[in-house]
Amino acid sequence: MNAAFWILSIITVLGALFAVTLRNLVHCVLSLILFFLGIAGHYFLLRADFLGAVQILIYIGAVAVLMLFAIMLTRHVTGDEEEREVLGGKWWAGMGTAVIVAGLLWAVIRKDQLTAVLPAGGATTSVAEIGKALVTDWVVPFEAMAVLLTAALIGAVVIALEEVIRKR
Amino acid sequence: MSIPLSSYLMLSAFLFAIGLCGALSRKNAIIVLIGIEIMFNAGILNLMAFWHYKYITMPTAYMFAIFAIAIAAAESAIALALVIAVYRFYKSVTLDEMTDLKG
Amino acid sequence: MDHSEYLQQLVRQQWLIPFFPLVAAAIQSLLKRPARKPSAALTIVAMGLSCLFALRAFFATIGGGEHHDVERAVFNFTWFRFGTTSLDIGFILDPLTAGMAAMVAFVGFWIFVNATGYMADDENFTRFFCFLSLFAASMLGLVIANNLLLLFMCWELVGLCSYLLIGFWYFKPSAAAAMKKAFITTRIGDVGFLLGIVMLYWKTGTLNLYTHDALHPGALEQVSALALRSGWWGLSAASTIALLVFIGAMGKSAQFPLHVWLPDAMEGPTPVSALIHAATMVAAGVFMVGRMYPLFTADRGSWVMDFVMWVGCITAVFAATIAVAQFDIKRVLAYSTCSQLGYMVMALGAGSLVGGQFHLLTHAFFKALLFLGSGCVIIGTHHEQDMRKMGGLRKYMPITFWCYLIGMLALSGVPPFAGFFSKDEILLATFHRNKYAWGAATFAAFLTAFYMTRQMFMVFAGTWRGGRPEDYPHSKHAEAHGQATEAHEDHGGEPHEVSWNMWLPIAVLSLFSIGLGFFGHNYGEYLGAEAGGSEEGKAVVMGASLAVVALGLLLGWAIYGRKKMEKATDPDPLLGALRGVFIFLNNKWYIDELYAATVYRFTATCGIFFRLVDKLVVDGILHAIAWTAWAISQAFRWVGDEFFINGGFDTGCETVQLGGEELSKLQNGRIQNYFRVLSLGAAILLLIYFFT
Question: How far apart, in whole angstroms, are the C-alpha atoms of residue A85 and residue B52?
Answer without folding.
Answer: 42
